[in-house]
Amino acid sequence: MVLVFRLIGESFRFAWDALRQNKLRTSLSLLGITIGIFIIIAVFTGVDTMRNKIQASVDKLGSNTLFVQKWPWIFGDNYPWWKYVNRPEPSYRDYLSLKERMESAQGVCFEISASSRTIKYRSNSVEGATLNAATQEYDRTWNLEFQAGRYFTENEGRSGSPVCIMGAEIAEGLFGSDDPIGKQIKLMGRRVTVVGVFKKEGEDMMGMSQDKNVLIPMNFAKGIFDINNERYNPQITVRGKESISFEEVESELKGQMRAVRRISPGQEDDFSLNKTTMLSNQLDIMFSAINIGGWVIGGFSILVGGFGIANIMFVSVKERTNIIGIQKSLGAKNYFILLQFIFESVVLCLMGGLCGLALVYLLTVVITHLADLEVILYMSNIVLGIGVSVIIGIISGFWPAYAASRLDPVEAIRS
């Protein structure tokens, strides 16, 4: 152990001397490692930040929630739209049948939405709001948080009372600092009483937020527009019970939907059961491709940097040939000489790698302050950058170190 620490200490000293005595040569050689590590870790940091933020948005949908819809959540160039275009939309009748039949569901909810609506209160108005209508089970299929007021009562939902729950941005736009609870707003020509305000969430990476939404009971919405119309994107949301596995809930839902639609055995489904894992899988594919691109681009820089380090090590061996001869004549083993130069190569690569990591960190600080987007340099990426630097140092330094360890002591001292 003492020998290892001594080797490391000497390697640091020799590496520092090489950097100090030949600043330009060593700096240019380390530049390739610095750029390579910077590109790889910057790409990985960006991907991890985007992935975590998008995944947080996806998680809002619920890991044990299924969405019965016309179109599946799949992406790609070969999207077979012709298979789905003639499918029927989920209907209110489908919802009623599922609500009676589903035993593993915590909640079954029918939802529609109408975008780009204008909400008014006296002389104030908010444009671009999304009007959502849902059955009473909406609070069982979604995680709702309120900053004021409450959810619909059973009686309000059943009777179709003209009440609503609005997002925080809409409440601020219409009422400012005033309390909106109990006040009447105007939407789609109807006067509606505000009973609740959703907690402010802020815009996420997928644009999913309740801040600009207004929620009304489904039975009230029936008097405003056709709730089964395709233009309002009808869907049935099913959340399974916590005590029952997601696969069981999905299997039961599929079977019940086929029974409701009277689909014969062997006949293809005329509906889609969408779930968050479908989005997660697509994200994994997309980000994996970006990671590969980062490795390829950064790999070329690291390859050039590796050759630069190897060149420095060959020069270092040449300059210290007589010292190597003296060390070997005094009893130094071949592995001692080998490790000495390998450690020196690793130290040089670590210097370049740490410079690359420092640049990535500075970039994350700048983006976080200027773009209002929190970018985090994760510990896993720091370890990756250091690990890649060490591996490149070992590979680049091995052949020069091996050549140094095989030198003949007498010939080396005479040189």
Secondary structure topology:
Layout (H helix, E strand, L loop, with lengths): L1 H20 L1 H37 L5 E5 L22 H10 L3 E17 L2 E11 L3 H4 L4 E4 L4 H6 L3 E4 L1 H8 L8 E4 L2 E9 L14 E5 H4 L13 E6 L5 H16 L10 E3 L1 H44 L1 H9 L4 H37 L8 H27 L3 H6 L1
Parallel strand pairs: 3-8, 5-7
Antiparallel strand pairs: 1-9, 1-10, 2-3, 2-6, 2-9, 4-7, 5-8, 6-7
Helix pairs in contact: 1-2, 1-11, 2-9, 2-11, 2-12, 3-8, 9-11, 9-12, 11-12
* Number of E-state strands: 10
Strand content: 15-25%
Main structural class: alpha+beta
Structural Rg = 32 Å
| Terminal-residue CA separation | 33 Å
Q: How many domain regions?
A: 2
| Order of the strands making up the biggest sheet | 2-3-8-5-7-6
What series of H and E elements makes up the topology?
HHEHEEHEHEHEEEHEHEHHHHH
Uncertain runs with pLDDT below 50, 5 residues or more?
A: none
Q: Percent of residues in helical segments?
A: 40-55%
Q: What do the pLDDT scores average to?
A: 84
The helix count comes to 13
Characterize the largest beta sheet: strand count, sense, and whether it forms a barrel: 6 strands, mixed, barrel
- The gross shape turns out to be elongated
